[in-house]
Amino acid sequence: MKKAPIQVWHSLETSTILQALHADAGQGLSDDEARRRSAKYGPNQLTVRRGKGPLRLFLSQFHQPLIYILLCAGALTAFLEEWVDSSVIFGVVLVNAIIGFIQEANALKEINALAQAFDINCTVLRGGLRRILSGSELVPGDIVILQSGDKVPADLRLLKIRELQIDESAFTGESMPVEKRLASLPLETVLADCSNMAFSSTLVTYGSGIGVVMMTLLQLIFTYWPPMHALFGVAPIRLAGVGIDHHGRFHRLHDGGFGKTVAAAV
User: Fold this and answer.
1) Which residues pair with 200 in a beta bridge?
2) Given 35, 125, 175, 249, which residue has the most CB atoms within 10 angstroms?
3) Could you tell me the residue range of the domain that residue 34 belongs to?
């Protein structure tokens, strides 16, 4: 299967795209081919790594070099019977741990909510038959059928439409639904103006359509950030101090910003 950069899909004819993806708009992929592509490209989802319990999460706030320095300083001042200084240092460490615990707990809630947002059931053409599948099972080349009220399960290049309109406010900020078209667009068209594409997690408000999956979610991420993936296996996506590893799992990015500020103040 040929790989085209994400920036050019809107500029290609649908026949060229189907040929590049080895896809059949009338039959869809076979089950065997779908399994092979799933093994090669990964699931169309972000999986959340099993988190720590509340106690471990709280104790992990102390697992930072600057916190060790503050604890040693607090112990030393206590040994010298400098009770005021010792109390201030230990108080600062405790406040830092509480704030870090609250921030990380809230970030984990946001992560779970974001991951669940991508878990969308959709109608897919497989082996000539319509099937209801989880969006996580989609692979490049899958033929997806859209109806009014559906959430778009992956980034699609539209193949057929019937008065199709999609609410893309979460993606572009536009308050009005976008009327979709099939004609290919100039290469320099910005992503938000690609009216021949349907974007993941947007909502179909009117009409119907058929589109072909261009990429899984993980492919999409690592197309935008390949240097970071190659060097570290981590895409530089940040959400309240959170990153995504090469398995599509979220993890915390420790920057120690608040701890450094506190240490400098002390």
Assistant:
1) none
2) 125
3) 6-44+127-217
